[in-house]
Amino acid sequence: MTHTDALASDALAGSIATPLIDHHCHGVSPADLDFTRFQALFSESYRPPAPGTTEFQKPLGLAIRRFCAPVLDLEPSCPAEDYVARRQALGAAEVNRRFLRASGLESLLVDTGLRSSEILDVAGMAESAGRPAHEVVRIEAVAEEVARGCSSSAEFAQAFADRLAERAQTAVGLKTIVAYRCTFKIDQTAPNAVDVADAADRWFQQAAGIGKFRLEDPTIVRHGLYLGGELCRQRKFPMQVHVGFGDPDVYMHACDPTHFTDFIAAMEKWEVAITLLHNYPFQREAAWLSEVFQNVYYDVGVILNYAAPMSRDILGEALEMGKFSKFLYSSDAFGLSELYYLGALLFRRGLKQVLDRWLREDFCSLKDAEELIRLAAYENARRIYPLGK
Ligand SMILES: [Zn+2]
Fold first, then answer.
1. Are 268 and 295 in contact (CB under 8 A)?
2. What is the 1 CA–ligand 1 centroid distance (Å)?
3. Residue 246 in contact with residue 180, Cβ under 8 Å?
4. Gyration radius of the chain's alpha carbons
5. What pTM value is reported for the model?
6. Residues 289-331: tens digit of each pLDDT
7. How many angstroms separate the CA atoms of 313 and 356, rounded?
8. How far, in Å, from the CA of 357 to the mean position of ligand 1?
9. Exposure string for 65-78, b = 16+ CB within 10 A, e = fewer
10. Residue 136 and residue 175 in contact, taking contact as beta carbons nearer than 8 Å
11. CA 329 to centroid of ligand 1, rounded, Å
12. pLDDT tens readout for residues 228-283
């Protein structure tokens, strides 16, 4: 390490530890997980690992063994079996408390729309983390829940509007998974009431046939987007939009956020902030959107965990040209509290490495670097979410 490396490194050591607002995350599992269930929760696939392999044999597996093991009083990089055994011995409640409290969070914005019966709710997360937690409501999950409670499709549109408005009352944002359900390559205008009623008829008939309400109809999804957009406008909070990286429901090539430009532009007219989540491998596209649209914010989410040793490079790409004033922190952790801890650790580590380089190459002052950290850590999130501060 050169003298200037050491200087840059030391200079940011204090500010990089600043508490983070995790603006997109999910609950953690309260269950004592065996090896099979534990590894399933750090895979984006619905399938088990290939025969003869484990999920530990990828960058995220290395990171869990290297960085999480010491939090459970184990040696760094201990065997995977020992790690899972220690986790079970300590019990899920203690494990979750340790990781969540060691993450250095200011507050958590929890998406409650995914497998909510298997994980801690917002109050449970606040208690385990010892930090304030707020809810982000998933639009498509509300539509499905409402549809299940309707006796006919004729009731759907009004009941959906009423329930979404009610849920928005106590939320700090809404979220859409349009990318999962329809991709971004759809008509992005608001459908009219007749089209919505026809689509609801079709959806209810189909659900009766398969015995399950799963919203994939683009007309109803678009209706939800504009219903949600109107609530975001009224309540002056953001709409989160899933982009790119995710489970096998995603058709990745059609989830480039630049396909969603028409809706982003419509929300810009309404002064609704759009926060593009995850984005990988479209972090450069997301950064560009933050440059050209006033209302676009973005993060890199859970990919930092999945890329682990290479996460600095992805963070660097996200910061190549995007606006510091639009860049947010999220772990996108789901199920495992390790993912909260690693998300925060790798974000701090990667951001510091990027800024150390900028300092070394004399592209910014220490004050500039510290401001960038504050913006990404909490100031941007505080500016757009109603967090009461
Ligand atoms: Zn998520």
1. yes
2. 38
3. yes
4. 21
5. 0.95
6. 999 999 999 999 999 999 999 999 999 999 999 899 999 999 9
7. 13
8. 30
9. bebbbeebebeeeb
10. yes
11. 13
12. 999 999 999 999 999 988 777 777 888 899 999 999 999 999 999 999 999 999 99
